[in-house]
Amino acid sequence: MADTANLDILLDLARQQLDDAALGLRNAADKLRLAQEQRQQLDSYRHDYQQRAQQSLGAGVSASNYRNFVQFLETLDNAISLQNKTVNQLEDAMAHARSTWQQKKRQLDAYDALKTRRAHARLQEEKRKEQRQTDERASRRTVLQTSSTAFS
């Protein structure tokens, strides 16, 4: 029984660890999604700004305005590059969180399978014990019947 209680404690702990890992995975997914959306917004903003800059260039702009367009596009490119690095880091974090969740899930499944096997083994042992007791009672009855027939 103490063995079963210990296994139940391990199962509860494994469930809690799996829940924690699932929460970590969910948080990693949310952060990644947000970073990807931010990157998409930066890409979209850069594309729009570049189109406006080209339209302005077609209409004629001063050298200082042209320089400002170019510098701002470089700033956007740097921001996009940084955001790409952030997305890559968050993808790695997401992969790690997924791996952790999978490992915790396998651990919980293993403990659960062990508990099931032990319960099955305990049930089989109880059935064998009942069968032995039934056989012993039947054997005693047979002996008693044989003894009483022999003395009659």
TrEMBL record:
Belongs to the FliJ family. Signal peptide: none annotated. Its main location: membrane. Residues 121-152 are annotated as: Disordered. It is found in: Cell membrane. It is a peripheral membrane protein. Residues 142-152 have a biased composition (Polar residues). This is Flagellar FliJ protein. The lineage of its organism: Bacteria, Pseudomonadati, Pseudomonadota, Betaproteobacteria, Burkholderiales. It comes from Mesopusillimonas faecipullorum.
